[in-house]
Amino acid sequence: MEPTVPGWSVKCVGDDIAWMRFLEDGKLYGINPESGFFGVAPGTSHKTNPMAMETCKSNTIFTNVAETADGNIFWEGLEKEMPNKDVEITTWLGDKWKIGMPGKAAHPNSRFCTPAGQCPMIHAKWEDPNGVPISAIIFGGRRPSGVPLVFEAFDWNHGVFVGASVKSESTAAAEHKGKVIMHDPMAMRPFMGYNFGQYLKHWLAFSKKPGLSLPRIFHVNWFRTNAEGKFLWPGFGDNIRVIDWILRRCKGEEGIGVETPIGIVPKEGSINMDGLSAINWEELFSIPKDYWLEDMIETHNFFINQLGVDLPEEITVEMEKQEARLKAM
Asked: Which of 147, 211, 217, 315 has the fewest Cβ atoms within 10 angstroms?
């Protein structure tokens, strides 16, 4: 992220994995257990991820990307950055190809693997064995409608419920399937490694341990759209505006949050919008009652199907409390 708000700088500790533990002071700390970045190439560009592009300029392994006749590499998303758009390209399958021709030059899951130390914004403590303190845990999904830009969980247990409910939506218009829901609890579904219910109980257990300073839990949604399908939020470097609000909440600043049935959203005017135009605050933070009641039913069915008797009682309680708050809107 390159912040668009003056006075902010962002440093990177890791791009994919955090190992977290509580130290003697009761605070949660995270380390990056990896020595490099391993990212999907297609879609990566100086617009979407400038730091990744600068990091992989040298000393980098690329797999299943395309190669240009002048010795460069190429994947989908770099079309506008190519100095010679007519250059001959050899696809990942070895076929001759040029920009604009049918098909893909790079495999959709082609990758780059590059040393983290080459990142221009790497944090000085990225290899510190004690790690860095965690003030907030931020979950997020791709939700085109219904879900506000950011909201804070009421407490730790509610935050675990929010994390367990993370999902994204996509529209499979070509197949006429309508809305497709993809659940990804804690953004960890492929990596949990053991029983989902036990995983949630592990998270929930920390609220019962004395002497711990638990981080606050938030949910973000950069992908809400209007009726025309246009994004309501610019994203990228402007996301620092949301991070700013989150950290102010973590510091205990009062008067910047409003309680809603799903969590605490920013009070209108509490996010720095200087330099932005045409931001529809009401639409960006609206919580449609019918949408959320339907979402609760879908979430409940997911938990029952995936967890059954392993569903922790605390999650059931949070689900029932949120449903009651929504019905009372």
From this structure: 211
The whole-number pLDDT of residue 16 equals: 84
Which one-letter amino acid corresponds to residue 56? C
Residues recorded for the chain: 329
- Residue 9: is it exposed, middle or buried by C-beta count within 10 angstroms (0-12/13-18/19+)? exposed
**Low-confidence residues in the chain, pLDDT < 50:** 172-176
Ramachandran area for residue 75 (φ above 0: left; ψ -120 to 50: alpha; else beta)? beta
Q: What is the DSSP string of 72-90?
A: -EE-TT-GGG-S-TT--EE
The structure tokens listed for 29 are: 């700390």
* Tokens describing residue 79: 């079309």
Strand partners, 266: 257
Q: Other C-beta atoms within 10 Å of 170: how many?
A: 12
Query: What residue spans of 227-312 are helical by DSSP H?
Result: 240-250, 281-285, 289-307
Task: Give the list of residues 6+ apart from residue 126 with CB closer than 8 angstroms, or none.
Answer: 12, 13, 14, 32, 116, 117
Query: Rounded to whole angstroms, how far apart are CA atoms 273 and 281?
Result: 10
Q: Please give the Cα distance from 102 to 246 (Å, whole number).
A: 44
